[in-house]
Amino acid sequence: MTNDNGNTLLALLTGAAIGAGIGILYAPDKGVKTRKRIKKKAIQTSDDLTSRISHATEELTKTAEAKKVDFEHKLEETLSNMSYKADDIISALEKKLSDLKNKNAQLQK
Question: What stretches pass through the bilayer (predicted)?
Answer without folding.
Answer: 6-27
